[in-house]
## 1
Amino acid sequence: MTGHRSFKDLRATMSPARRARNAEATQMMLHEMALHELRQARAKSQEELAATLHVGQPAVAKMERRADMYVSNLRRYVEALGGKLEITAKFPDAEVAITQFSDLGAKAGGATS
């Protein structure tokens, strides 16, 4: 194939500074994701997630499109992907973990952490 080069070859020609910038950009992307991107990164389909959450696939699709939702629903979504939801308030001089929601799953009758 004329004019086509493998990523491995392209990467080999990049300067160390450019590779560092690319690595930093990759980490930023991995730290900021929409729910559907998070699900895809965890290699789960909407159908698989729906089965874990005991809801229909359309409910998962709707959840992924919402701009606002209950913390309990977000927690269930993240836990269904195998994660743990933590809420942190960030200030210029400190970060504070908000614990008010830590036992939300247990109170709602869901799984505890």
## 2
Amino acid sequence: MAVKDRKTRKLRGSNHHGWGIQKHRGTGSQGGAGQSGWYKQKWCKYSKYFKDIHGSHGFTRHSSDVDISTINIRDIERNLEKFVNEGKVTIKEDTYYLNLASLGYDKLLGDGKISHKFIIQTDSFSEGARKKIEGAGGLIESETKEDRDVIAADNTTENTNESS
């Protein structure tokens, strides 16, 4: 075909080259490839389908590296006989002595009723557990950081009084 007979040659100067008003390559007024124009000509599509792609949304709770194993007073009461048979709890004069760390627990919680006198050694406990244990005539022995600080403060006070 000769150059002079080609359609593009014949339609030079017209706006549409024989394809009507619309654009004939299929992309229409899309304007750009990929994600360009999302805040301009592609805003309708972006705001309807892709609004969660950009920016921060909400927050991420980072998991704690420390898993605290807890036990309730109810569970100690239920399994008391088993703990005694396994040798994890000792009995002296109607008082049960137990170390929660030897049982594999980190914290004592106060859910349940207590019917025995306990002396429990643990590093962490709830206020409700302390009230119930002491209400039954028992005791919670703990050596947490706060307790060590109090003991150290008492020792320094005694040393100061002795030197005076």
## 3
Amino acid sequence: MKSPISILCTIISILFVASCISSSKEDKTELNISSHEYSGMEVFLSITGELPSGPKEIHKSQIDSSGRARIEFIHKDTLHAQLVVGDYEFFTTLYLEPGSTIELTIENGLPTFEGDLKIINSYINKINLTQRDGQKYVNANYSRYKTASSLEQQVYFDSLKTFGAELKKQIERDNSISDHYRQILIDYFSLFEITQRLHFDAQVDRDEINIKGRSVVLDSTLSNAFEDFSLQPEYIKYPNYRWYIEMRLWPIFFSILNYRYENGVKTGEYEYIKRAVVRDEKLNDYRELLMAMFIAQMSHSEEMDYSLGSKLVYSFKKDYPQSKYLTELEYMLTDFYQLKSGMPMKDIEMHDTNGKAFSASSLKGNLVYIDVWATWCGPCVDELKYSKKLSKKYSNHPDLKFLYVSIDEDGERWKKFLRKNVQIKGLHGLQNSEFVADSNMITSLYKISGIPRYILIDKKGNIITANAKRPSELVSNNYLDSLLAL
């Protein structure tokens, strides 16, 4: 016979398991899709994390021959997720709550919602459609207004409020919507105007940096670095808003780091950005978010590698040991860890000028210098002048292979360029969307955000560096000789 303590433990265990099952059941969202016109197509439900540039949680399904698809997943928070059918044949934003069941029918490209959250998702789709019209207006008028007077610019931003104005009034009058959901919809409506302002300011600053070669003029204390930047806390929960905030921060972070470089400041990147953030009192409540976004943005820079990434994440972790952003930042590091010196190369497949497939791994046994370029990239073409000299300098070293990987979408333009520049000796390959999936592109595998980019692979097929020196630097030193001697 079991003792009372044993029986009590068993009961507690049963209750615990039952509560976990119940909790999971309550947190599970179901999305049922019906659409005959998209039969056979894949369906993707994409959930953006806390950091827009971090990895996304993606749930997949496929619309079967009967026109049905189903996605189920467990989550604890309300979500604004993007639903995509096929290659964007249909897409919309969905508002999801834990434990909700959404019935979505797509007919003639238009959605109809039933089940839970029917009204709010119907309105969100209508808002999306009005904002797509607004985006067309923005795209057509951006160039005109970026050089206009401040008064004309304000008129332009005021005009963005007119898109969907009648729909907004309808939402405000609709008695079938609770006050809670009405506020969510009104906030969602406001996002278009707010994010376009952020986008406009970011693009103007980027033009100053990229075209005019200028950045924000900072003082030695960095107290004015964020004077033209502000956050609206009620919108931070929206992934779309966070994405535009990160975009707006890029030229500001760039200007701070550029000032650091030009003035020979020895303080590390993380601490220097932190100094500027701390200087601005209006950012007191958002330091954690801004520093996380800074590291996320640095992951796309040419300087980023596992060593720098580890230092940045370590510094952040010291400041915010319980941060909700740490999971995404540490996940980011795993990609760079795989690109460390000594790690096996990530193989790439491409096509030669005759359309024949070959891979970089076929060159194992040689020292391989990979040049990632495109015919439309001015700096890439400029470096090719030195590539000609470099290949000539090492023409007597058959165990050094020069591999030129073009990411041109226009294959004929690439072939024509090579016919005119036969002096560029080496192996030539083309990688583009016609031949290779995005995830297998060299730009994805090697975390390349800008070209030209150069990669060195040793004779064993391991990475020497995923960010090698340019031909213009190598042609005048003996670095490659030292590697050939190994």
## 4
Amino acid sequence: MIHYETKIGLEIHIQINTKSKLFCNCSTQFGNIPNKNICVICTSQPGTIPMLNRKAVEAIVKTGLALKCKINKQSFFSRKQYFYPDSPKNYQITQFNPPLCSDGIIKININNKEKNIHIKRIHLEEDAGKLIHEIGSTKLHYSLLDLNRAGIGLMEFVTEPDFNSSEEVLIFLSKLKNIVEYLETSECNMEEGKMRCDVNISIKKIGDKNLGQKVEIKNINSMSNIKYSIINEIKRQEVILNANKKVIQETRGLKSKNCETKSMRSKENTLDYRYFVEPDLVPFNLKNKFIKKISKQIPELPMLRKKRFMSEYKLSEYDANYLTSKKTIADYYEEVLNFIYNTNKSVNISKLTANWISTELMSKLNLSNISILKSPITSENFAKLILLISNSTISGKIAKIIFEEMYISNKSPETIIKEKNIEYISDESTLEKLCENTIIENKNIVKDFISGKKNALTAIIGCVMKKSKGQANPKIVNEILIKKLKNYIT
């Protein structure tokens, strides 16, 4: 049986987070009616002149610096010539050589071993429009053109062929997405096409020095599609080589939900895009002052924040990983803790807070398909709920009832407690009577306690809690029961 080695390189297009397009003032807002966000510049009307968006340059430099890239201060744009129906110019304004950023690196962890993924270049370019393919009532095929996306600024990341599996690719893309979201240079929303990936795959016999023939799979916009496209393409190439045939250099696209691909065009010869310097945009020279200013804007990145969460809040690696997986979740967590510590500096409930956010809150938000930024429960109200749990004002069971109401009504936990009269019973005389009656009613459990059975105390506490409908303060109940039950031991 022949064994093969896989080599994978990526070209990742990430939409830059600016309010206007790369070369005009048209909005970049997603979801508007087709062809609303257009003007004479982004539709390439004769005589129009593009104007470079400064914010887009700042965003790509910020991203490059965060990834340890070399910033090429002297830069210019080129025209990349090709015809496609969703590109009104019949060329794309992009960067050829040099790119704005080059020679970056991202470290990923594979089976507890660190691996360097080299980013060859990050360059700035404009996006194309979108074709919507339809079948009419007469079964004639036709296409509709929406140019809302045409001219939006993109960062294109080109990696070296450093990947050997779909697993490595997904780990890298998740990490890149997380870093870019922390930088706030893109939202990276794959469902809205704000992050798309071209995958270049080749396989070769283990031991061969030369790389195999490369096949490109274009415009994949979900992690699962990327995973299964790679797996299927590797299998397809193995079948071809095992039959003593040659893999054809080509571009393929997804054709079905199970990530099978179809040939779009062959690439027997390298395409001649006939790059030349864009005549309507002057070259620009980035000053050291500009680059230093951008470098100061780089926030605490995910790995550093994860390490700080583990050391400062004593969280497990699992909890710290989850909380820092999105900047918005990490921000919310720290907002909650800041409110708690400003209220009571002596408490240490970082773990309790992490548990409630990762389980109760995020489960609810995910089911509702809502971002934590739009959470119905503010960080302040969430902190108040955690404090009520930690100081035993309410039980975990009651806390869940209050939480559900908070999620629906946006009310504070104190308001809900008053409205529903569900606060803990902490009056000792009331609890003593409750414990005495429970002991009288549960003589068998008392016998178990006397005989030394470990679970007996827990069982009788449960009976008290049930009798009080969950409102008895368990801490005080525990103290009272231990005192009273000791009297039965001779």
